[in-house]
Amino acid sequence: METQNKFCQSCGMPMKKDPHQGGTNRDGTLNDKYCSYCYQEGTFTFKGTVKDMQEFCKSKMIEQGSPKWMAWLFTRGMSRLERWRK
After folding, report:
1. What distance in Å separates the CA atoms of residue 4 and residue 7, rounded to the nearest whole number?
2. Does residue 70 lie in a domain region?
3. Ordered DSSP codes for the chain
4. Nearest CA to 31 among 20, 18, 22, 40?
5. Would you say residue 8 has pLDDT above 80?
6. Which of 30, 36, 58, 82 can bridge 9 by disulfide, Cβ–Cβ 3.0-4.6 Å?
7. What is this structure's pTM?
8. Is the dihedral of CA 13, 32, 9, 23 positive or negative?
9. Phi, psi of 43 (to 5 degrees)
């Protein structure tokens, strides 16, 4: 299946890095807008604010070996992703 979105519209992770190539809708079908870490069975797994999500993602990236500056860079535009836009 060709993914429509290059990045998860909740966390910003490249969809090609998602082991499941997308989350799941309530009916079990693949959702290509959100990654499998953020969206399962039609529900967001992370319930906090965009700021909380940025901090969570930054800490995960640092934990996996990314430099702090890179984690900041990759999460700073998160508020522009579809899930967080007001």
Report:
1. 9
2. yes
3. ---S-SB-TTT--BGGG-TTSSEE-TTS-EESSS-TTTEETTEES--S-HHHHHHHHHHHHHHTT--HHHHHHHHTTGGGSTTT--
4. 22
5. yes
6. 82
7. 0.87
8. negative
9. -135, 140
71, with CB counted inside 10 A (0-12, 13-18, 19+), is buried
Domain count, the chain: 2
Range of the domain at 26: 1-47
Contact 79, 51 (CB under 8 A): no
Q: Would residue 86 count as lying in a domain? A: no
Q: What is the dihedral of CA 49, 85, 76, 38, to 10 degrees?
A: 60
Tokens of 30: 């693949």
